[in-house]
Amino acid sequence: MRVSTQQLFGKGIESINDVNAQLQKTQLQMSTGKKVLTPADDPVASTRILQLNQELALNDQYQRNIDLVENSLKLEDDLLGSINDVVQRIRELTINAGNGALNGDDLKFISAEIEERLEQLAGMMNSQDASGEFVFGGFQGKEEPFQKNVSGSYTYQGDEGRRFVQIEASVNIAATENGKAVFMDLDAAKNTFFTEVNPTNQSSPPAIITTGQVIDQEVYDAFYPEDMVVQFKTGVSGVEYDILEASSGKVLSSNNPYISGAAISAEGIQFEVIGDPFPGDPLAVPPVPGDSFLIQSTEKQGVLATVEKLVYGLENFKATPEGRAVLDSLLEDTLTNLDNAETSILETRSQIGARLNTVETTKEQHLDVELLTKEVLADLQELDYAEAISNLTMQQFILESAYSTYSQVTSLSLFDRL
User: Fold this and answer.
1) Residue closest to 138 by CA, chosen among 156, 161, 155
2) Is-contact 196 179, C-beta < 8 A?
3) Do 168 and 43 share a structural domain?
4) Residue 27 domain-assigned (yes or no)
5) What is the pTM of this model?
6) Domain-embedded: residue 152
7) Contact predicate 393/61, CB 8 Å
8) What is the DSSP string of 210-222?
9) How many domains does the chain have?
10) Is residue 164 a contact partner of residue 172, using CB atoms and an 8 Å limit?
11) Does residue 218 form part of some domain?
């Protein structure tokens, strides 16, 4: 068999290139610290390495989710603790107001502090997290959940949503609570009501309606659960109003002359419609004919509404036996409603505590899984430097031998024998 000069040179160069490629691969392995650089190096190990890296990435995302949930739940728990402290202070003031030796002025002093506490309470319920989201707004995190309406009463503008975050493959945990469930949907001590301004009213500035109170529970219970409408019209003596049963349109009281701020009583309840905040002011605007105000019955009463009714009752106290009886009933109902609010807050905190325990357990589990996964990954892809150095030394020796052999073989020529 003849071996041409070209074949001889080609075979030598190919051998050198193969050894050099192996040497470069070993050097790259040593620089990266990994023994599997491409899928071709070890297809089975490469597939497993890819799976383990995906598991680590997913585990890392779960860890970030857990941190998010943990921070959110801790913030909620702290806020609820502070809110509960304020509710307890209002409860103390309510008990103080039951002292029969106090007169109307004393009750107004107590009312002044309770009103300040009401603003503090609403401010806490409108707290935001680090990202600027309102904590108790449900899914409406960008909008302040507890807002004053035109009459100055607080209403809930959020929704009933709760944000869930996945912290494990099959575990989703609630990271937030909505204010409606915690602070609004509370059983009232007795049948009660709330007042609203009809949004279609035309007076400008709009007339308002006070929060009101029940002055005869027995009479109101007989009327409950009907609603009322206060309808304004033009009468003989000027602006007048009728009081109607909302469901049937039945007239409960008619042709009543309107006096701004005067008490309006019907079916055991009392409230005021104020359209002339500065009596005698020629610019003041009373309700215009066609304006209406709504009195809605309810068996639920939020904590803010409870405090608003307490403030109303203290400020409108009448120093008569009947007035004292109305106040005593109000204070009794307020204490029951505040107890219901505290119960709701404590139950929510208990649920948050249970979720925090779940989060903590899951967090530890993820850390254990991460540690084990990294150990398996290290066995598959991390380089044994002692073995690599030995291979590198051997490959360098082989490469030098290949160079030497190539040099000697390629120097052979017939011309050297002539």
Assistant:
1) 161
2) no
3) yes
4) no
5) 0.81
6) yes
7) no
8) ---EES-HHHHHH
9) 2
10) yes
11) yes
